[in-house]
Please model this.
Amino acid sequence: MDLLPTEEQDEIISTVRSQLERNFDLHALAASDGAASVIDRELWARCAELGWFGLGLNESLGGVGYTLAEEALLFAEVGAHATPGPFLATVLSARLAALAGASDLAAGILSGEQLVALAEPHGPGDASAGATVSGTFRVTDHGGADLVLVLVGDTAALVAASDLVAEPMASLDLLVPTAIGTVAGVTALANIEDASGLRLRATVLVAAELAGIATATAEQSTQYAKDREQFGTPIGAFQAVKHRCADMAVRAEAATSLTRYAALAVLEGQPDAAFHAHAARTVAATAAIENAQINVQNHGGIGFTWEHTAHRYVTRAQVRSRTVGDTRAHLAALLEQPALA
Amino acid sequence: MNLDLTAEEQAFREEARTWLRDNLPTDPRPPEGQEMRAFDLAWQRTLFDGGWAGINWPTEYGGRGLTDIQQMIWYEEFAKANPPFTLNNSCTFVGNLHGGPTVIVNGDESQKATYLPKILKGEQVWCQGFSEPGSGSDLGSLSTKAEIDGDDLVVTGQKTWTSYAHVADVQELLVRTDPTAPKHKGITWVICDMRSPGIEIREIRTMSHVTDFCEVFYDEVRIPLANVVGGINNGWRTAMSTLGFERGTAFMADQVELAATVERLIDEARTRVGPDGRRPAIQDDELARRLAVARAEVTALRSMTITGISRNARTGVPGPEGSIVRLFHGELHQRVYQLALDIIGADALRLTPVDGEGVWTGPYLQSFAYTIGGGTTDIQRNIVGERVLGLPRA
Model:
């Protein structure tokens, strides 16, 4: 039993990190703020070449052949860099298409040619994601997408983006373009009836992204507390600031440790996998939101500016904590689980 | 990253489960005095005879030389066996969990041979003499003085917050041996015989009504120089190793037990009437949310403990990261018992013992110790800030 990455996993982390720093610089991406689509297709294809979208998919299904553990490490980096783009919808839909036997569809997604938006039920009406898809949905990354992954409870389906009528909204996170979309009795391109496994993986990956946000904001505050001087000393020497940084590190450690545990429990199909996935998701969401918020405070005036990246983490944490269920739903699901054996 | 238990670890779990089923005491632990000491030492002896003492201690000192993961498995099985007492609520705590481990790392061969077997066999009770009335969070300012006279140290001064001093045989004691050196350079870590002439012990009653808390007075107490661990004036370094154990691994049993406590609390909330006087407490939205959060957080605590074990396995000794877990655990422990009192409603008016079956208010009062003992949470935050994150000192 071990919860630290192996040397090979550390290499994956450092490769992902350097690519994200080079290609997804948040200051450069500010040019896409508020755009209907924030993803450059060439860049997306380069991510595909690196194997990111099929990292945890079996080689027999067209993937790289690692596991959910490595996928979770990738998503933690995506969170840590506040990287925009439909990473979750892409990874999940490639798996869905491959499992449903739609290998051409899967290949298009894995190669980065097909961009996939994510849709989850919105409002009180009925929604379904079986062989036929209908309902009203919250859709993210819809602009420029070719496909839409529709998640409704434990069912999931892929439809053509052209089959969805989307009404864009002003998005809280300007790099996560969001729309309200309706689908009226459209035939799915691919679907799986029991997508509970897919949803569990999604829960872990969102938790990992949130844990990454918690970690990055803890590090950003710590660095600033070392660099910024007031009253003739780095502000990190003051207990008020130092202790906030310490609490951020504690929350990041809790979120990271539990998310890694959950990823391993899910990939091994342990009976307590759902217990750990729901727990990780709630701990990570709280850690991400609290750390992102306090990170703004630790930066003072500069943290309140558009130019600084602190606000990116605030809005991303809020959006992701409402992706694939929200904290209330996961807490309720956790309490329904039987006690750990 | 893996959750695999080796065949050996799985067999160990089975072995522990079977042994606990057959050997766990059913009598409650006497709450105080010599009866308590006798109970704790008898249980330690039973553990030793069964091969469960010093699970992660080296074999050359009487331990089993197994891994920290196996030590954790043992705690988990103990917690699941529905014991009539909590594992760390014992006068054997200091010897097993930080005095002994400090001697293993810093002691000479004679000290190891003298003390370690006695700790494991339940023949010796240790207590801790670190804090003083004037030196709490600022431990390095301690002023209990020790002068070298022939082959002895002669100690005069006062220690406080010493649990189990009144039933202890020996003490891990910090004294000032060089008053002219910078404050962290003139300290010595020494093993003091608690029956030496010149020692006076006074019991201190705590807010949880436990009487094993003490203050200790030293009037020219002679301690052989041979009892110094880690060298004269090198005591701060030895003490940091003690505190590394105290903050890093000593509370693993408590952390494991807290998960069982939350499950017990969820069961209580299913059977007790909630705040509306009609439905079970668990159907109250606010209580349900807090129970779910507690469940998530104790699960996080366990994974943090495993991360800590993984880290120690790479470095060999507990590092300052232990304070991250200790800090999270202490505050979570308190939140769990605060939640418990909200769930039991008017039953919270009844005082219970700290230990035993179905008790909530005693442990609630005791929970205040969890953010003070072993360094207050303010000190733990300083350690995380300065030694883990590298922030500057004030």
Summary: Strands of chain A lie at 116-121, 128-129, 132-140, 147-152, 155-160, 165-168, 178-187, 190-192, 229-230, 233-234. Chain A touches chain B through 51 residues (CB under 8 Å). Chain A has two domains: 7-192, 196-336. The domain at 196-336 of chain A is CATH 1.20.140.10 (Butyryl-CoA Dehydrogenase, subunit A; domain 3).
